[in-house]
Amino acid sequence: MNKIDTQINDFGNGQQVSPEESVKEIVKPRRSSLSRRSFLGKSLAIGAGSIGASMLATNRMESAPDAIITGGDIAILRFLSALEILETDLWQQYNELGGIQDSEVPGGHGNPTYTNALRVLDEDMDQYIHDNTENEKTHFTFINAYLISKNAQPVNLNQFRTLPSSTATGAQQIPRLTNLMQLTVDTSWWTRYRSPTDNPDFGHVYRPAVPGLMQGQFPAIPRTNADLTPPDHIQAIANTAGFHFATIEQGGTGLYPSLAQRVTNVEVLRILLSIGPSEAMHFQTWQDKAGNAPALTDPTNGLVFPDLNSPPFGGELFQTNLIMPEPCPFLRPTFPPCAIVRPTNTTGAAMAALDFLTADGLFRGQSSAFFAFMTQLAQAADAAQRG
Length: 387
Description:
Layout: H1 19-23, H2 36-41, H3 44-56, E1 60-64, E2 67-70, H4 71-98, H5 112-119, H6 125-149, H7 189-192, H8 231-260, H9 266-290, E3 296-297, E4 304-305, H10 349-359, H11 368-382
Antiparallel strand pairs: 1-2, 3-4
């Protein structure tokens, strides 16, 4: 089997296959202004330095006779590719245990107990998890292929695959990029989208739907088969996953329009404006399903999932069937309210996204080299200026 036939980034077979090796046969660039092979062979410090020198110091790169692509455009695409690789890694873990395993998203074997707990939120959860996983994989695969077509460096995170996998039945035993077993989930998006008076772009802070998820480190997948009982414990894990799905996807919903404001090349803008709305479709699905999470208290750790439709919650800020964005202030308080994606402030958007994911606990156990690499990508994206 050649590399183009294997699953990208070792999804499905445990092999360490880089995104660039998987897509380089798809798109043949006219010339190579950067050495992808040498990049993978160098240390993080050398790699990060070469990115800064080649991408940020170069204001414009010719990509085609009728198009100019800037170093800022490349930096934005590289950061988004990295985030999509990370998203694919976490969704792959969810799919292995609670989704549908097929040729589109291979790798796991499923865990019936966890899958049934997820179905309490919606009977089609396994299909939705599968489709979200497939979507994220296509996002980074496409962006990396596009980067290669423009003679730019694709993103490869395989050197950071060091985190352990769940040992519960159904999960592959391969190294991971993300940690779904010690999450601190921010569910403030729940009231942010229901508030008619506030907008996070104006600095407003919001009440979380599940305060307990911000007060500890909780699994969103069974860590071992011991997590499959008692029933309220595995249901709490499934509930955590349900809220985490929406937490992740609302981040992408706002990030794409935030960074689109810094893009110069029209084709790159089209990429961001085309992928971003698919993240919003994911978010809309998941916040609806999160509202079906049954109220309970996890007997093993005291984590409480409240009834959001009853006191002391209740009201429009928590009502579970209000999943459309409430009109809110936008641009300036003097304008009339408008139903929008929020936030979309472009200043520091990439670093804010990275900080948010870090606070979520997704990277607990990752190396300092990983954080240095991701920080460099985020800072480069935030430094991009629209030409």
